[in-house]
């Protein structure tokens, strides 16, 4: 349930962080040998059986997106490179030790022994398992982009943790590991920024089933095909919201003031959405490894009651666990933004709202049945690091979400279907640079 278990650790002074990313040795080259300072684009696939998302950045092999993950990790070949324990990057790799993850006792950061190879502790967000392995330097690749098309291939190297093969359990078949996208220094967006000298931002457009979405790392425009083509990034930057920092992890939290159903505010206890920075609990956080937005029970109960009341005229079907509230699919009109139903609005800073229409609030469970696409955390809401609300991928799908790690902001487009496009409309045909 937590976006990421981690023990608390004192923050490193900023100057140490900026020294950390002194480039790993290895390839620097873009397609033609000059260091590219263009953002990179990669397709996003959705795995039908796990509902996880992957990007093929490890020489074509897919890594699972984990917004809260601090590291890039994958099993290694024998003879892989290692990183000295005394290096500052070893300290960075060990800053967010997964909760309940046993230390192996070797490769401790800071050891002055020159033969000591740094150990890192990769975490599988789908199974909750952790493992240990060498910190290594892995080759990654993607295409440079102008925000409209891929332009030319780019290879670069990044620090990554080796993982035992068994740690791949519960990931999509064929996945080679995980790409952590958090705010921490060894996440994929942080390393892309320092290696390719691009902006420390990324834009995520998660596709619905059967489509190919896109992620752009490094800033710049983000254009989707529509009539006419639509550039979305500039507007998102102008209307960005502040991210909140949880000192216990590197996940992406933002402020929510309330929830409304059909324009009427849902009665939740005061302060229900607040992030407790000292405990690292509460708050509203994005997750790419949680399918349906999951709410603490003191928020979930009034929300489902309000939605139930707002849809009282719609014929029901028997609840199909894990879904609590289901409807006769044929009873809804069909609109551009999904089944015609009362909107759910997240009330954000500055009077802004993130509207969740039918395509975001309901899920098709079978031919005849649509169900309410939110879940309760249950009563074990005191789990360490448990947020108040985990925004899941069903609600993020077909929204462009732009994270700026430098400024500490997030921009959310709202459901793109309302603008007659989808995350499946990035043009992956090669363009000319
Ligand atoms: C670059 O884009 C082309 C066209 O979409 C694709 O075939 C190729 O695999 C991409 N290369 C990398 C390194 O991602």
UniProtKB/TrEMBL annotation:
GO terms for molecular function: aspartic-type endopeptidase activity. Transmembrane segments: none annotated. Residues 49-413 form the Peptidase A1 domain. One of its GO terms (biological process) is proteolysis. SUPFAM superfamilies: Acid proteases (SSF50630). Keywords: Disulfide bond, Signal. It holds the Pfam family TAXi_N. Residues 1-29 form the signal peptide. Disulfide bonds join 326-371. It comes from the Eukaryota. Belongs to the peptidase A1 family. This is Peptidase A1 domain-containing protein. It comes from Panicum hallii var. hallii.
